[in-house]
Amino acid sequence: MTTTHPKNPTTHPKNPTTNPSSVIRTRFAVRFLHAMKKLNKKTPPSRRYHTIRAAACASMASAVGPRRAWSRAILRKIRARTLHDHLIHKSRNHRLITRRKSAGLRGNPRDQEEVGFRQEDDLRGLVPGGEGMGFCRLLSETAHYIKCLRAQVQVMTNILDHYSSS
Amino acid sequence: MEPKVEATQPQFRSGISGANPVEMGLGFDEIHGLISAAPGTGGSSFTALLELPPPQAVELLVKEDFPVKPMPPPIFPSNIALIDRASKFSVFASADNSPESTNILSASSSMKLDLVKQEPLESDSHPNSSSPAVSNQSLKSNKRKEREKKVKESNKKSKKVVANEASEDSGEKLPYVHVRARRGQATDSHSLAERARREKINARMKLLQELVPGCNKISGTAMVLDEIINHVQALQRQVEFLSMRLAAVNPRIDFNLDALLAGEGGSSIDNSYPGTFAPSIWSEGQINGSRQHQYQQPWHFEGLHQPSWGREEDTSNFITPETSLLSYDSPANSASLHSSHLKMEL
Question: Counting C-beta atoms within 10 Å of the first and last residue's C-beta, which end of chain A has fewer, N or C?
């Protein structure tokens, strides 16, 4: 039974998991699966899609950490939402929270005139937390966000494959 | 001249003392003392400064040890305004990231060299002779030749740094705004800042172009942005779609991770692996994070016994998804292939 195969040359030598995308993938995968396990027991099938999607975003954001503006924005949203749920006066706080969010206006209106302003608005809408930063910052956040989204898709695809195949 | 000099003196003091409190403070007191002590010479207090202890003044100026570069501190004693500017740059240099600051320093020094050369200095041949001598040592080789370009580029950068860091606009303080703008570029501080920003934006756009597949051929910011937006939307839609599928799949499978163990073993290594070993070996090498330490021991057991795959141990099984997901670098197709392959073996 114990056939001591040599370690796989492709996976072993340089420890391929240390490259940044696989680090993110690992962290995301761990959190996401944790969340899924918990979800599986609690939620009824009706809301499942919604909760899974939220769990995916949340676990991605927490895997990235507070280093990035978009992950911070997502975490803020989640915290605000949970706070909001716990509070008695939901409506009042919800209004407050949404007002606070809209207060973070665009950084440099000048930039819109310089470079593709139509797309900039769209991009801001797409990237979480994109409201409150300048165009330049928005671009770097978008780059990181794209990387993480891609990792997320890969992980989720793999999970799905494993589940559906077994 | 005089009002300018006097006006800039306090700034000079604050600027330099900001850069190097210890040394500057000492030098400063001396200079200040000299200045205040020689009111009798009339308005030309700064010539007094320069004349009275010329070697000392030079020394004091040389002492300003700008931390960033081995360049001697830009010594343009003829203009205290320039010195002020130099100190400001050095402040930026210490505070800010190096490439910009080095550019700034070099630019500032080279710029000042320009000024020193071009403008007939009011009184002082002495500091002039010392300054080229000192500055020659370090600057000459690099800066003089590319001075123009550097000045141009660094103008933008320095302008940007100044705009970003200095709360007060340096243009206001220092009388020589034209020092900054050079060689066919707009002299406006605004346009310089804009140019710097535009360069930053272009750099980021290049990064994004590499990230988004198919963007390399497109030229033009607007279309690239369109592509980027489409890509982000597509990725988000994919995530939603996948989560929908997962939600549909979930109740059936009940999140049993044994299957993952099987799949993962195969996917992690080359196809021929039995998969039992892969997880245990792999987990040692590749799993990062403290979580895995708890799991590693049960893992080994799991790995060694094939039939134990049937066992449900959540803790150990938990690692498996990571390991399988880690194998992304190798063609992901092997993952699903191997899971089925292993099942057949069992």
Answer: N
SS3 B104: helix
Q: For residues B228 and A123, what is the distance between their CA atoms, to the nearest angstrom?
A: 8
Domains of chain B: 188-258 (4.10.280)
Q: Which residue of B has its CA nearest to A117?
A: B222
Q: Packing angle between helix B80-95 and helix B2-19, nearest 10 degrees?
A: 20
Q: Angle, nearest 10°, between helix axes B319-326 and B258-268?
A: 30
CA gap B238, B241 in Å, rounded:
5
pLDDT (tens digit per residue) in B92-142: 444 444 444 444 444 444 444 444 444 444 444 444 444 444 444 444 554
Among the residue ranges A80-94, A97-111, B23-37, B246-260, the one predicted with the least confidence is: A97-111
Give the residue extent of every domain in chain A. 20-165
Residue of A nearest to B201 (CA): A136
- A15 to chain B, any CB pair closer than 8 A? The answer is yes
Q: What are phi and psi of B272, to 5 degrees?
A: -75, -10
Shortest CA gap B167–chain A (Å) = 18
Instruction: Show which of residues 120-159 on chain A sit within 8 Å of chain B, judged by CB atoms.
Output: 120, 122-123, 126-127, 135-136, 139-140, 142-143, 145-147, 149-150, 152-159
Q: Does B137 contact chain A (CB < 8 Å)?
A: no
Residue B238, chain A, CB below 8 Å: the answer is: yes
A91 touches chain B (CB under 8 A): no
Contacts of B310 in chain A (CB under 8 A): none
- Hunting for tokens 């370090």 — which residue is that? B138
Which of A10-19, B45-54, B328-337 is the least confident region? B328-337
Condensed to tens digits (0 to 9), the pLDDT of residues A89-138 reads: 555 555 555 554 444 444 444 444 455 567 778 888 888 887 778 888 88
Please answer whether residues B186 and B196 qualify as being in contact, where contact means their C-beta atoms are separated by less than 8 angstroms. Answer: no
Task: Compute the count of residue pairs across chains A and B with CB atoms less than 8 Å apart.
Answer: 220
Of B194, B236, B251, the CB nearest to A149: B236
| Calpha distance B85→B274 (Å, rounded) | 70
Distances in whole angstroms, Cα of residue A98 to Cα of each of B2, B36, B118: 57, 60, 59
Element (H, E) at A57: helix A48-64
Each residue's pLDDT tens digit, B48-80: 545 555 555 455 555 544 444 444 444 544 555
* CA nearest neighbour of B250 among A75, A91, A119, A56: A56
